[in-house]
Amino acid sequence: MTDRYASFVRSGAGRTLVKRLGLPDPPRLRRHTPGDPLAPGPVLLGAATGGRLAEPVGRFLAAAGVELRDPGAADPATDGQRYAALVFDATGITDSTDLRQLYDFFHPHARSVLPSGRVVVLGTPPTECGSPREATAQRALEGLTRSIGKEFGRGVTAQLVYVTKAPDAGSWTSLEATLRFLLSGRSAYVSGQVVRVGAGTAEPPADWDRPLDGQVVLVTGAARGIGAALARVLARDGARVVALDVPAAGDELATVANEIGGTAVQLDLTATDAPARLAEHLAGRHGRVDVVVHNAGITRDKTLGRMDADRWDSVVDVNLSSQERINDVLLERELIPAGGRIVSVSSIAGIAGNRGQTNYATSKAGVVGLVESLAPALRERQISVNAVAPGFIETRLTARIPLVLREAGRRMNSMSQGGLPVDVAETIGWLAWPASGAVSGNVVRVCGQSLLGA
Ligand code: NAD
Asked: Which of 65, 228, 261, 266 is the most buried (most CB within 10 A)?
């Protein structure tokens, strides 16, 4: 689906009109292509006094070929330097009076971030802080990052990454993976998010350009939209993809599977025997499934008073109950090995609620519940469980929304545009990497920092 307004404002006449009338000005977002440098310019790395992360983060970034700059040596008044990213280690902030160090770091450089640049603040999870004062100050970091996401514009994203106070080897690998995702064009449409890196088992890849090398990945709903983009992105990153969709979408599914050298499974997830048939297929073909991506979903919108029971049942069954049934069977038969990943697709409707979508929002909020309850339960088995919650993504599903609502959905976010299926796919890809094992129990929105449910 094309965003005609965005194309128009990028034209000569459009630019003039946008400036004169103060209309939304959707920037062209930097998206990932293999071989891209991690950051297309220098990165300014600063730290609050006593920060514990700047040193290891500086090492990862330097090893990844990033040109690092030190705020002590940078003088924005005279050097005119522009940065691909500002990264600040705020873990040394233990009291609200220390928050001034955020201002001191960001204020002089606020106007020197390149278009589609990145802001990343590193903190300590408030629940792990040693005192109420420290927890208070660390919680305050959310307000700063979310505001920067709204303020800097031009496709700049801002995130907060809370890193456990008791990191193990897996934490460091997953922190590196998280920074590689957040600094790159893979996270083009992710902003205003809080990511938690805990402890866990995580394996760095031999090649960060193929972070899923050799992984067997199941993608449900892979015939089109987000699922088809997912199959392509995961295959590009080295995965062997098992693409699943309903028999009625068999032709489209075969096209996707053939294009990426994956296999196609025609199966209705709501069929009684679907979990067992899927388990048999995975066991027979691959002996395991390293990553399960629950992407298949449907909408059957109506206000609650006008909704028939079929609409309620089918949406909850496809979007939520089928995920539970499949997880149960795959876990029971131990087909998801240690180091496995489960990634579910929720929605901002599950966070904010939506008129006419009580069934859908119930199912998608249930997906958040599934992640929150399953992640701790599967920690022992070294299986991570996360969700992504897309906002307005340009697919057939959103093409059906009436024009005025569709335009509102597209513009009411910090990027003034809808996301693309590839943006959701890249985010799921990062959560699926063997290197991301210490990121579990997270719900990451891919919504361009939508105002809904913010
Ligand atoms: P889509 O309708 O284009 O694709 C969904 C796919 O799921 C289809 O190929 C469909 O055949 C498949 N599917 C549906 N029921 C199935 C079943 N019983 N068994 C097997 N496959 C089944 O939708 P999309 O926009 O690509 O959405 C993908 C996911 O993202 C969904 O879970 C959706 O709720 C979620 N999402 C999308 C948006 C958006 O803006 N497009 C926003 C938030 C969340």
From this structure: 228
Atom number of ligand 1 nearest to Cα 419:
40
User: 275 CB under 6 A from ligand 1?
Assistant: no
Tell me the pLDDT tens digit for each residue of 113-146. 999 999 999 999 999 999 999 999 999 999 999 9
- The reply to whether ligand 1 has any atom less than 6 angstroms from the CB of 343 is no
Tokens linked to 182 = 């957040």
pLDDT for 19 equals: 64
Q: Residue by residue, what is the 3-state secondary structure of 315-326?
A: HHHHHHHHHHHH
Query: From start to end of 252-296, where are the E strands?
Result: 263-266, 291-294
Distances from the Cα of 27 to the Cα of 15, 30, 156, 272, 416, angstroms: 11, 9, 9, 47, 8
83 classed as catalytic = no
- Residue the block writes with tokens 């699922």: 227
Class of domain 31-197: alpha beta
Q: Are 291 and 240 in contact (CB under 8 A)?
A: no
Find out whether the beta carbon of 401 lies less than 6 Å from any atom of ligand 1. no
What does the DSSP 8-state code read for residue 107?
G
pLDDT, mean of residues 278-294: 98
> What is the Å distance from ligand 1's center to 395 Cα?
9
Q: Is 409 in the pocket of ligand 1 (CB under 6 A)?
A: no
Taking the C-alpha atoms of residue 442 and residue 368, their distance in angstroms, rounded to an integer, is 9
> What is the whole-number distance in angstroms between the Cα of residue 329 and the centre of ligand 1?
22
Probe ligand 1: pick from 1, 3, 226, max atoms within 8 Å of CB?
A: 226
- How far is the C-alpha of 419 from the C-alpha of 410, rounded, in Å? 8
CB hemisphere CA count around 304 (13 angstroms): 7
- Tell me the fold of 216-446: Rossmann fold (3.40.50)
Ligand 1 center to residue 226 CA distance, Å?
7
In sequence order, which residues have a C-beta less than 8 Å from that of residue 169 and are 6 or more positions away? 202
pLDDT-based confidence at residue 294 (cuts at 50, 70, 90): very high
Ligand 1 atom with the shortest distance to the CA of 364:
34
Q: Where in the chain is the domain with CATH 3.40.50.720?
A: 31-197, 216-446
